[in-house]
Amino acid sequence: MILATTCDEQPVRSAGSKPSLRCSRRCGPAAVGLTLLVLTATGAPAQQIHLHPAGSFAPDGSPENPFQLVRAGICKATPGGTLVLHPGDYREVMTVPDPNSINQAGVTLTALPGSSAVIGNVEGLARTTLKVLTYNTHLFGPGVAPTFDDGRRAELIGEIVAQTFAEEGLDVVGLTEVWDEDLADVIMQRVGSPEASSFYGDAIDSGSLENSGLLLLSRHPLTNRRQVFYHDESGFLEPLASKGFLEATMTVTRTDGFTGTLGIFLTHTQADQTHDDVDTRALQLRQLSLAIGGYQIRNPTHEIIAMGDFNVDGESSEYQDSLRPSLDVRGLSDAVRHTPCFDATAHATYAARNDLVRIFEGDEPSQRLDYVFYSSGAAFDFLPRRAAIREYTTTPPLCRDIVALTCALTPLDARVHLDGLLLHLSDDLSDHYGLMVEFDAYR
What are the residues facing 50 on neighbouring strands? Predict the structure, then answer.
């Protein structure tokens, strides 16, 4: 049921512990269903959280960096706060059991002075969900980097991805650091990906020790595929890989009537944090940005997903000074920062507690390095509804010898006592965690 609701009076403010929404009077009949809210301006309160239908790259609620989703603004609100909606349609379905229960914590909704905003105007639009996963696998195979039972991990990762496609309706996954082609084949075989829906990035030339490490798998056909290598690289090990990005077009056609086309970009940029690394990464991000811009010019009715391991900490100055301007100029937003009630600062994809981080790197700070960025509004409204960090693990733990044959000769229940002395154990399937984002799409 769609309820046409007009809230043009000052909402009340009452005490409570959980921010929610409420109008100052009964806004239409009380009924369980989806509520369409039409907001007009009221007074200008002191505390404000701004929202805009277009959102911003990394919202904080300021006028310059507004949230895109009303629910995200509610999650950031404190009792007595006010959500200021800039004019436009907020294509967002919100379940409101009783309009009078809105804002029992004193969170006020109002439109920007002199304007009006509409929430939930989705009648007549086709609606679907789209699920995106990105995951750095650290699968090197034979090579120069540390390995940890890579063949078995590739099998398990392939099984997990296949399960996510089958049981959760995953639409597309971007895997990074699948450096070895044989291990990429293992994953694709486990997933059962047809050639039309899978895309693996090769090496720059025969002199490269590693391929790109990029593997794109989709529920939908991938067309207009191309692999691009980064012009700039630095350090000793980075030039041995074939870093760059994959680009493809993915058209989603649902039985519910929704059809939409997206440009998919998967990348893995320069690693490490020296001055040269940061400068090189900035050049790579500029090259990626130009490619996304070119795609948008050629395909103005396509939305964009850009994902992968960007090797930029989400709480660093580099995020603000380099990553943000590179993608903001293309109209992209950081999905987890817009996801309602998801604290991006508290969810690292490269975490100190991870077994393989401990084994490969020792003491490392937790960082958010893996991202899903998205555009919205070119052809349809594309809004993140939830996000989750996926900590993929296995039981019993995988085992690697420090002293030869220790894993084979030690019973499972006794291995933990030798961890770090004669063998290494890992519950984790990679030194990164996966990032899953679910989007609502309206057209």
Answer: 84
pLDDT in tens, 223-257: 999 999 999 999 888 888 899 999 999 999 998 88
- Look up the CATH number of the domain holding residue 305: 3.60.10.10
- Residues 274, 394, single domain; the answer is yes
Backbone angles phi, psi at 187, to 5 degrees: -65, -50
Residues 15 and 139 in one domain: no
Give the long-range contacts of residues 96-99, CB within 8 A, separation 24 or more.
96/21, 96/33, 96/34, 96/35, 97/32, 98/30, 98/31, 98/32, 99/3, 99/5, 99/22, 99/23, 99/26, 99/27, 99/28, 99/30, 99/35
8-state DSSP, 365 = -
> What is the pTM (predicted TM-score) of this model?
0.88
Sign, CA torsion 399/403/406/412:
negative
Among residues 129, 80, 66, 58, the alpha carbon closest in space to that of 436 is found at 129
- The parts of the chain modelled with pLDDT lower than 50 are 1-36, 41, 44-45, 96-104
**pLDDT by residue (tens digit) across 21-44?**
222 222 222 222 334 455 554 554
Query: Into how many domains does the chain fold?
Result: 2
Residue 411 CB coordination number (10 Å): 6
Q: Tell me how far apart the alpha carbons of residues 192 and 163 are, in angstroms, rounded to a whole number.
A: 11
Provide the strand spans (E) within 243-302: 244-253, 259-268
Secondary structure (DSSP) of 289-348: HHHHHHHHHH-TT-EEEEEEE----TTSHHIIIIIHHHHHTTT-EEHHHHSTT--GGG--
Lookup: tokens for 80? 């007595």
Q: How far apart are the first and last CA of the chain?
A: 19
Nearest-angstrom CA–CA distance, 401 and 423: 4
Joined tokens for residue 379: 């052809």
Domain that holds residue 142: 127-442
Phi, psi of 286 (to 5 degrees): -65, -40
d(CA 338, CA 383): 8
Give ∠ CA 146-151-154 in degrees, rounded to 5: 100
Label the pairing between strands 116-119 and 423-428: unpaired
Same domain for 201 and 73, yes or no, is no
- Cα-based distances in Å from 239 to 120, 235, 289, 308, 370: 50, 7, 21, 19, 21
Partnered with residue 386 across adjacent β-strands are: 438
